Amino acid sequence: MSEALIMTGRAIRISRRNVDALITAMALPVMLLLVFVYFFGGAIKTDTESYVMYVVPGVLLLCAGFGSSNTAIAVTEDLKGGIIDRFRSLDISGTQILTGHVIASVARNLIATTLVLALAFAIGFRPSATPAGWLAATAVLLAFILALSWLSAAVGLLAKSPEAAGGFTFFVSFLPYPSSAFVQTSDMPTWLQPFAENQPVTRVIDSLRGLLLNQPVGWTPWVALAWCAAILAASAGVSGALFRKRTA
Asked: pTM for the full model?
């Protein structure tokens, strides 16, 4: 645990020094929230009283995607720069190194999420969640951020360069679009609806939206958590195997 905390502190210091990437990861979700609410919100029909009430959960997941993509770049830069060899000579295991990057990613995402929520409240987002609903929504969002951060670490171990790892941003930023993030899945083409309704991002967004707006959610949060647990377990296992292979 002490080694993981040391690696977390190192990853956070690296993020503080890489100011441009940090600002970009926080500014993009804010810009997207404003664009969707004020440019497209009037043309999109939803079952909520205003579009900002519908779109905020989707933007929160976009925020998580942009923030976690920096984890993939940081892991690739560590491998390329040779610092991993130095850590291994100090008998620091790969688990602690990757855990440090993941915890730093979660911390960055929490800051960005707070910023997006503050702006959402400023432009009219008024959730009616109960205290239990807020706790449940926070748990689902944290689980998704943690799973996505470990997935980013695995991508960073696969990529051969930081530029290639940065391409992960495109995949993460694209996946919420064929989901319930910005439009209702029932308004999508018939051939796309099965994928949009059953992919993990939709389950997480529907859980957040229902919990924050105090709507019936049924088993959706449990399905979302199951998706997050599966992604987390697979990503952590693959990351361990890839780290041993890349540093052998």
From this structure: 0.88
